[in-house]
Amino acid sequence: MQTYQSALEGIRSSPRSWVVTGAAGFIGSNLVETLLRLNQNVTGLDNFSTGHPTNLEQVRSAVTEKQWKNFRFIEGDIRSIDVSREACRSADYVLHQAALGSVPLSMEDPLGCHENNVNGFLNMLMAARAAGVRRFVYASSSAIYGDHPGLPKVELEIGRPLSPYALSKYLNELYAGTFARCYGFESVGLRYFNVFGPRQDPNGAYAAVIPTWIAAMIRNDPIFINGDGETVRDFCHIDNVVQANLLGAMVEEPAAADQVYNIALGERITLNQLFEIIRSLLEPRYPHLRDLHPVYREARPGDVRLSQADIEKAKRLLGYRPVRSVAEGLAHAADWYVATLAPRSPVKRPQPEAALSGF
Question: Rounded to whole angstroms, what are the CA distances from 233 to 117, 191, 193, 258?
Fold first, then answer.
C-alpha cells in the first residue's frame, strides 16, 4: 500500500502537469500551493465567483519565484466547454474543486447550482477524457448521505438528498461512474466532511461555521448556533483534504480507482463542543471571551442533523491517514485566522449565516 510520504516522493521525483479547478478558492489554493512546492506544473482555473485573488497572492508569497513560474492561471468558467478544454490541454491529472458549495444557496438557486455543479462537472469530465488525462479526482460531499440515519456514514449507504446541492454532488458521482464504465476513464471521488483551515472565507453570505465563529469572537460579535447545538459534525482540516487528493491521483492499486471515499477525521463533535474548543483557544488572546455564550436560533432547512464518517475504505485503498485533529487543526490555523479576521476598525458588521455543508 502506498503511504502519503511515498506519494509525495513520487510526485516530486517526476514533474507532471496538473489542473486545479476552483484554484482561487479555499481548498483549491491549498492544493495549488502544495503542488508548486513539489515543483509541479499547475494550471489553475477559477471565475472568482467564490474564490479570491488574495488566495493566489498568498500562494505566490509561500512558494519560490521559480516554483511560481510553473503556475498558469485561466480566469474562466467550467460552464464553458471551451474553457474546460483549454484548462485540460496536456494535463496529466485534474483535481476538480470548482463548485457552488453551499446548501442554503442551492435552496435559493437550484438552477444555478445545477449549472455549476452538474453541467460544469460534465464539461470537465468530457474535457479531461478528450485530453487523455490519467485520472480525474473530484470533490464530492458528505451532504450525499441526506436523511440516512446511520452513524458512522459508510460509502455504500446513502439516503435521500436534503438539498439541491446534495443532489448535484450525487449526480457527479453517477456521471463519474458512468464515464468509467462507458469509456474506461478513471476517477476518484472524495466526500468531504466539513473542511476547515487557512484561506477559508468568513465573509461570504453562507460562510462555513468555523471561520464565521472565529471572526465573530475576535470582533466581539454574537455567536449564533442554528438549533440546539447538539448537531453532530466530523470536521476535517485542510491538510487531510490535500493528502486525500494527492493520494487519489497517485494510487496505483486498480481497485482504488473509480471509487468514492469519505474524507474526514472519523470522529464526531457537536456544535456546542466546537464552540467551547474555539472559545478556549482564543481566550488567552481575547479575554472578553471568558464569559461568552452562544445565541441559539431556529434550525436551518436542508442541514443534516448527524454526520460522522467511516474512513476505513480511504485508509485501506488510498493509504489515507488524517494528520490533524480538530483541536490540532484549529491551533495550527489560529495565527492565520487572527491575522486575517481581526477587525481593522471598531465598526461592527452583521454576522453571515454559518454553513454546515460537508464541503
Answer: 23, 14, 8, 27
- 332 inside domain: no
Please indicate, yes or no, if residue 82 is contained in any of the structural domains.
yes
Answering whether pTM is above 0.90, one says yes
- Taking the C-alpha atoms of residue 279 and residue 50, their distance in angstroms, rounded to an integer, is 28
Q: What is the CA radius of gyration of the chain?
A: 19
Residue 115 lies in a domain: yes
Q: Is residue 65 part of a domain?
A: yes
- Map residue 256 onto helix, strand or coil: helix
* Catalytic site includes residue 165: yes
pLDDT tens digits along 112-133: 999 999 999 999 999 999 999 9
CA dihedral 120, 108, 296, 276 (to 10 degrees): 10
Q: What confidence score (pLDDT) does residue 346 get?
A: 40
Catalytic annotation, pick one of 165, 170, 206, 261: 165
In degrees, rounded to 5, the angle at the alpha carbon of residue 63 between the alpha carbons of residues 202 and 244 is: 65
Beta-ladder partners of 137: 95, 188
Q: pLDDT at position 203, please?
A: 74
Least confident window among 109-118, 255-264, 338-347 = 338-347
Q: Could you tell me the residue range of the domain that residue 14 belongs to?
A: 4-195+237-263
| CATH code (residue 147) | 3.40.50.720
- From residue 290, alpha-carbon distances to 117, 191, 213, 220 in Å are 42, 36, 15, 12
Tally of domains within the chain = 1
